[in-house]
Amino acid sequence: MKVPHFDVTVIGSGPAGLAASLSAANEGAFVLLIEREARLGGILKQCIHDGFGLIRFGEKLSGPEYAQRFIEQLPKTSITIETLTFVTKINRQADGFMITLVSKDGIREIITESFVLACGCRERTSRQIGVHGRHCSGIFTAGTAQYYTNVLGKMPTKRCVILGSGDIGLIMARRLTLEGAQVVGVYEAKPTASGLMRNIYQCLEDFDIPLYTSKTVTRVFGEGRLSAVEVSDVDEYMIPIPGTEKIIECDALILSVGLIPENELAESIGLPMDNRTKGPVTDQNSMSMVDGVFCCGNALHVNDLVDYVSESGEAAGRSAARYLPKKRTFAEIQTDDSFLYVVPQMLSITELKAPVTFYFRSKAERVKTRLTVTADGREIYKKAYSQLRPPEMERVEIDFKDMRITTDSHICFALAEVD
Amino acid sequence: MKELTCIVCPNGCRIVAQMQDGQYVFSGNRCARGLDFAVTELTAPMRSITTTVRTVFQEMPVLPVRTKGEVPKEMIPEIIRELAKVLISEKISIGETVAADILGSGVDVIATSNQLKSTEEKE
Amino acid sequence: MSYIAALNKRLNILYGGKVFAAEENGCLFIKGELSQWQEIVHAGLISVNRKKYIGLVNEIRLSGVEIPPMKLPEFADNTLEGKSPEVLVIGGGIIGCSIARELKRYKIDVMIAEKEHDVAMHASGRNDGMVHPGVDLRKGQLKKKYNDIGNRMFSTVCTELGVPFRYVGQYLCFMKDWIRPLIAVTPLYWKAMNVPAEYVSRRNLNKREPNLSSRISCAVFFPTAGVVCPYGLTIAYAENAASNGAILCLDTAVLDMEVENGKILSVLTNRGRVYPKLVINAAGVFSEDIARMAHDHFFSIHPRRGTNIIFDKKAAYQVRTIVSSLGTIDKKAGHTKGGGIVSTIDGNLLVGPDAIETYERENFETRPDSINNITVKQRHTSPKLDNRDIITYFTGVRAATYEEDFIITFGKFTANLIHAAGIQSPGVTAAPAIAADIAKMAANYLGAAENEQFDPIRIPIPQPSGMPQEQRDALIRQDENFGVIVCRCEEVSRGEIQEAMRRTVSCDTVDGVKRRVRAGMGRCQGGFCGPLVAQIIACEKNIPLEKVRKNNYDSNIVFGDNKEVI
């Protein structure tokens, strides 16, 4: 039997994958969209709160509504959609890639010229942050608690402690309170909160849920179900301070302690990864260091706003559709150590015709800061910020036209205080 | 002096309201919408509500909904209680009204997912 | 001076009259009261005399502390009242389950009583899965006898039971250069001990284990070291025992016994009173309690906690076999638990364990200092160990006797009792041999004939992700559920999860499913698949989601429908 051929295969149908498949199809590519769940939309299906699409649509939509804006366009295209389908293997071939798929129909292979990794991310677990005690039930990552609440309609807790002030934790603090649970407080190990300011305001302050910083959960108690947690103060290195322990009775510990890009597929094909983003190294066209392999959305680096995830997906889909195998030469993007990361990490020199969109996160909270981008010592871009926070990703567009960038060019991003 | 965070856009500007000559003077907002928000927030704070309502359908036991617009913040608990009584027994589409003019607020509550409808289509 | 007199003199000096020793019925009893558990254990260890006494019973009380009693199952009923199995095996760990399976080679009616909701919930599910070559075992120890025989049986047993197993070998590494000529001759010692061993130079070690510390100067390689999934093997033994007719009673705890004239007449459980002809004590940390109930109290258990750490499969490149370094092995008091690094049968890296005396027999808590101590120590062997690759950790409690050896014997005072007690490392390796011996002992005692119907083969739950493509495809066409991937970190299908609940040993918890098919054991630790697994359990068992439990007791996951609960 003949193996089906596609121009572009998109793996994942969350906001990144939906945008990528639509923009690839828009470029005239023959697209396959693969989704391991039964339904499209990825994590947006369970993000029933609003605030999505303010930038892209100028509207305050809920997650499912935002996803629907893309999903309803799919029938107008010739995109092939496979749900409840799982990618088990990817092999490089002479004419592209062979992807092996598992589904209810058996094991199948397809051949694709290029593919887009849009697999999203996973949540950091209790073990990864050193929560100790007995492995009782009632310890959830915030996304899992959200799934029980918003998809299955079940109460994962009646009285809980939330560890981590990331946005998912803040959203769940409000959600669980609305469903009648008692949220004892949100505890954050860093000295400042991680989530967006507006979420702290409308999820915690609105409901009088206290936020405690420089505190963490060190132990959990419970034989079968969680019955209490131990909270300790921490120092500036986030090491618990002995003698500051307090016991808080609760039946759930909800963790919002970070997201990690999901990259098992990327690693299985040997994509060079960026240790800072935990995603693949890419150029300005969302292409990884392996020709024909693209990456976008949270699989590339963790975003805060779905609008930028869609933008990232669109760019990747477009690039994947236009992809022609040819040799690339790169200039590396360098940063001073005031950044958590800058994406893309590489500039493909021959493709520098259009402005490049960069995304970055500052390592520390800063006020009155200027971003300066230099090429071989020449200042080529600058922007002033009244405030930069690590949890809030920033986006800039830089046009490299006429700048004669070569592989030996030193392109450097730097942040400095302004008077 | 009062401090509040604007929730209109992702910027989340921290707005400070100072009392001057019997009136509030605002600073910290980066746009006019923020100013409107701050004024409303101090006089009659409004919020949108997002939650779920129960359905009779096993494949989707709860349906996500939201208020189509904002309601007075103090109405949140009673609106939530009212919505807890709702039971969806028809496969409605995204945007369809689940509860009209909820508790006389003038605001409808609408479905935000099309999943019920698309299961019907599959069958 | 007699031994007892000399011992009492010594105890007096050490503990100032608070502790004294006495002989009773050929056993050495030490009694009194001390304020530190470590002191109580030490008193026991220095008092042991295997030549003169049947065993040591340590009855020293711990001041101000009540030793927590054994945790009992949630419910009680009469479903077992009046039953009279020929053999009652107490304990559903690897020892109890393997004994039950071996017993079915004979025409013997077998019942297993396990107080937890599943088998392998205690030490058998909380160890490093190592099949030991017997590096640190001495002639004369039962440990050595059963380890050596068990090790040689392992391949056959695992093939019969459909359990993955590999002889990967173990490197015992040495850091000091001057030691090399001495180490080079040690294989002769091990040869005399019947343990195959081979001296490995630094250069050869680099070829075979290229990522270890450059400070290692040489090593000894033991090819008969292996890796297995210990709870997987326990479950396999239990399933095979059950399909051959053994009755496995979970949630069944032994509370008391009626003993008369040196014979057990009946055994009281939370499910009624049963009347076995023969009782086998495989009760792990509670084997002393059982011995006491059976009026056959000649040994004591001093529990010893150990924690193991599991690293991401990404880190598995660091060690290909099993590696431990001297200097990290604790050669104290007859046990050598300084731990090492194991490349597990599932492809993870397992690091540990440590060994800490405790009186809490069921405290499976993990502690941050354990994690720190273990990783710091093992980094001497593999410097690339990065705590950020840790995906989980777990604690087990070993059932150690003061003699630090197995107790495999008929009762000393009670006739219809066999002990398989004090089984600590190398318990997993020794299990096949212990089980075979005890089954023979029981068959002789009962005069039982061989069971021609016994089928040693167990077909495991299919694992599509490990199959060749055509086989996997065919399986999915038979049952499409094997094509729906639920746990994406470990690529586990819905079909496997359903199958886990349809075996001869009952399984209805999230962790029970996890232990059988690995759903939830990957990087995200059940973040995505947890709710899906819970739903599949709810559907299979026809119960609402709020009745699905993670494990034992009240480990419910959710509280009910969210507009009704509060």
Report Rg of chain B.
19 Å
Shape of chain B: elongated
Based on helices, strands and strand pairing, what is the structural class of chain B? alpha+beta
Mean pLDDT of chain C: 95
Show unreliable segments of chain C.
Answer: 328-336
Distance between the termini of chain C: 74 Å
Please count the beta strands of chain C (DSSP E, at least 2 residues each).
27
H and E string of chain B: EEEHEEEEHEEEH
Could you name the CATH homologous superfamily of the largest domain in chain C? Answer: FAD/NAD(P)-binding domain
Q: Low-confidence parts of chain B, pLDDT < 50 over ≥5 residues?
A: none
The proportion of residues forming helix of chain C, as a percent range, comes to: 25-40%
State the CATH class of the largest domain in chain C.
Alpha Beta
**CA gyration radius of chain C, whole angstroms:** 24 Å
| Biggest sheet descriptor of chain C | 9 strands, mixed
Counting copies of identical and different chains, the oligomeric state is heterotrimer
Number of domains of chain C: 4
Q: Percent of residues of chain B in beta strands?
A: 25-35%
Structure notes:
The complex is a heterotrimer of chains A (419), B (123) and C (566). Chain A is an alpha/beta fold and 419 residues long. Chain A folds into three domains: 1-123 and 258-326, 3-Layer(bba) Sandwich (FAD/NAD(P)-binding domain), CATH 3.50.50; 125-257, FAD/NAD(P)-binding domain (3-Layer(bba) Sandwich); 328-419, Immunoglobulin-like. Helix content of chain A is 17%, strand content 36%. Chain A is built from seven helices and 28 strands. In chain A, the strands form seven sheets. In chain A, strands 1, 2, 5, 6, 7, 8 and 20 form a seven-stranded mixed sheet that branches. Chain A has a five-stranded parallel sheet with strand order 11-18-12-13-14. Chain A has a five-stranded mixed sheet with strand order 23-21-28-25-26, with no helix packed on it. In chain A, helix 3 runs parallel beside helix 4 and helix 4 packs parallel to helix 5 (197-204). Chain B is an alpha+beta fold and 123 residues long. Chain B is built from three helices and ten strands. Chain B has a five-stranded mixed sheet, with no helix packed on it. A three-stranded antiparallel sheet of chain B has the order 1-2-3, with helices on one face. In chain B, strands 4-7 form a two-stranded antiparallel ribbon. In chain B, a hairpin with an 8-residue loop joins strand 1 (2-5) and strand 2. The mean pLDDT of chain B is 91. Chain C is an alpha/beta fold and 566 residues long. Chain C has four domains: 3-62, 2-Layer Sandwich (Histidine-containing Protein, Chain: A), CATH 3.30.1340; 68-166 and 224-300 and 402-460, FAD/NAD(P)-binding domain (3-Layer(bba) Sandwich); 170-221 and 305-395, D-Amino Acid Oxidase, Chain A, domain 2 (2-Layer Sandwich); 464-547, BFD-like [2Fe-2S]-binding domain (Arc Repressor Mutant, subunit A, Orthogonal Bundle). Chain C contains 14 helices and 27 strands. In chain C, strand 2, helix 2 and strand 3 (56-58) form a beta-alpha-beta unit. Mean pLDDT of chain C is 95; it is low at 328-336. At the A-C interface, strand 7, strand 10 and helix 3 of A face strand 23, helix 11 and helix 14 of C.
